[in-house]
Predict the structure.
Amino acid sequence: MKTYLIIAALLMAAPVQAAPRRIVSLNPCLDTTLVQLADRDQIGALSHWAHDPTETTIYDMAKDLPITSETAEEVILFEPDLVLTSRHSSLATRNALARVRIQTELFSEPQTVVESIEQVRRIAHLVGHDDRGEAMVARIEQALADAAPPPDARPISAIIFQRFGFSTGARSLVGEMITRTGFVNVAARYGLKSWGYLSLESIIADPPEALLAGAIDPNRPLWSDRMLRHPALAVVGPRMRRITFPDVLLSCGGPVLIQAAQVLSAGRRSITEAP
């Protein structure tokens, strides 16, 4: 008992680390979590992707926040006391920030739901809002539970098909999301194990039941969408249901998993409940 009292006294006497006052994020996926966990006045700047509605899910939340193009000089001008970076962030910028002793936290891209949830908790702790992190985790877990198929449901064969034919196999975060929501990712039967590209011909020759295709903006035609617009996809329509799965839901975890789960679940129901 005496030992517990000593430990409790030491914990009470330990200084509480102040929450950062100005945070800069250099990664679009970290942006999406940061804006929902930090106080508005804690955010010094987000990545430049946050102001592009075609590249982020948080455009409406972030359009009035400052952004950075990731150069060290620009980041330093924001006078941050915490910078969130990823392995995709500029190494030169990360090294420069280390030299001027600005606290930087390096994040890897989560490959599983569990890793994504751990990342949410880590960011929440860094910004001083563990309670908000736990609330976000609860929302993610509830969304996944709501999106799960019935126990006796038959898995539906599916593949991701985005701009330029970009796709992914089962060994990815979105690959796990596809499985959790009642699909089976059959990219392997086209020779794809992880990230890569699928030919239009291979899909037409052996179509899955569901094509999780990127969103097309009719008012913004892009050359990169030419495969998604190809009329040959309509030919196999009766054998393959096309489900719109926006590419902004493809790579990020955190709160993006909630939207991804909802879109995938609705897509599965559109097939199983079709007359």
